[in-house]
Amino acid sequence: MDFKPSEVQALTRGMVREFSEKEVRPRAEKTDQEALFPSDTLEKMAQLQILGLLAPSESGGAGVDTVTYAIVIEELARACASTAFVVEAHNSQCIFPIAAFGSDDQRGRFLPALSSGGTLGTLAVLESGAGLDLGDLKTIAAPDSDGFRLSGRKVFVPSAGRAGLFIVAARTDKGPSLFIVERGEGVAPGAPDDLLGVRGAGLASVAFNLHVPAENLLGAEGGAGKMLESVFALGSIALGAGAVGVSQAAIEASVEYSKLRVQFGSPIARFQAIQVMIADMAMQTESSRLLVYRAAFARDQDEDLRVMASLAKALAAESSVRVGNRAVQVHGGVGYTKEMPVERYYRDAMALAVMPHTPDAGRLAAAAELLK
């Protein structure tokens, strides 16, 4: 097995890291503390095709493979998890389903603007009390002249106040279905949620009450389940990569601090207790990285992802929380203050761990497949 990245993948990592260090990291603290949506950064990323990573080249996108996509998300999250989360939602949860399941007309109408960054996209599935259970969807799409009357309320929608295009799950007479909904009258985002982590990702509730033309039905009516299975498998890989990026940032901050902080006449990096914690952080991060990129490679090879993607997200998310906790411990009391970035890494890790589902939910999904 060859673990060496391709030349394109290596160049992509270098390019995104350079961009992130220059444009993303300097804004990360303010993005978090003021819950600022990273609009300016997104405009600059559009010039690098980061907002069109998963769109085909004929639609103006980069058309990258899953491994390259994971690399980009990891590097962005290493600098700012909120920014990475917005990019992931736009690519995995909006561009991908349209590119994979949309009609020629839908791909032609929507992908160019999404790829260029002219329109920001997101996914609206979660509902209060229902979570990801499509069988309990309260959002309804009833027949209405030449289309559907879509009404309902979604929660924890990324980029809710900024998105121009929503992929919305709703129940029709034939079952759970997906609709492409353009922002306008009848789409009402609420105030941004006051979150523990990824505070700049603009998550909020969105109320829908509008007519959706029949040509905006995505895929077959009643086909949301299969489509979302693919969307969430890709999203699990990408969010796992984001968790790895947060872990990597926590390790780097801890290594740097341990070399500078002096106690009892020596840098704390010389203390075995600190060394064990940092080694444990590296072990957790590297094992997560291996499984995430194995899952990304498997997707590129058209392998079954139902087990691997769930396990990759679960491991990376839980590991990131542990690494974030260790980073705070390495920093001691100052690690608990906003003077250091590690408390943000810890909070961001906890947010990524539960979005869109918990590690235990991932375990249950994997177990259901393994026990068939």
Question: How much strand?
Answer: 5-15%
End-to-end separation: 29 Å
Strand order within the widest sheet? 1-4-5-8
Largest sheet: 4 strands, mixed
Structural class: alpha+beta
Structure commentary:
The protein folds into three domains: 7-116, Butyryl-Coa Dehydrogenase, subunit A, domain 1 (Orthogonal Bundle); 121-220, Butyryl-CoA Dehydrogenase, subunit A, domain 2 (Beta Barrel), CATH 2.40.110.10; 225-370, Butyryl-CoA Dehydrogenase, subunit A, domain 3 (Up-down Bundle). The longest helix is centred in the middle third of the chain and has 37 residues, at 224-260. The chain is of the alpha+beta class and 372 residues long. The model has no long low-confidence stretch (mean pLDDT 96). The chain has helices at 7-33, 39-46, 66-79, 81-101, 104-116, 224-260, 272-300, 308-331, 342-354, 359-370, and strands at residues 121-124, 140-144, 147-157, 165-172, 175-182, 187-189, 204-213, 217-218, 262-263, 266-267. Helix 6 runs parallel beside helix 8 (308-331). It has a four-stranded mixed sheet with strand order 1-4-5-8, with helices on one face. A hairpin with a 2-residue loop joins strand 9 and strand 10 (266-267).
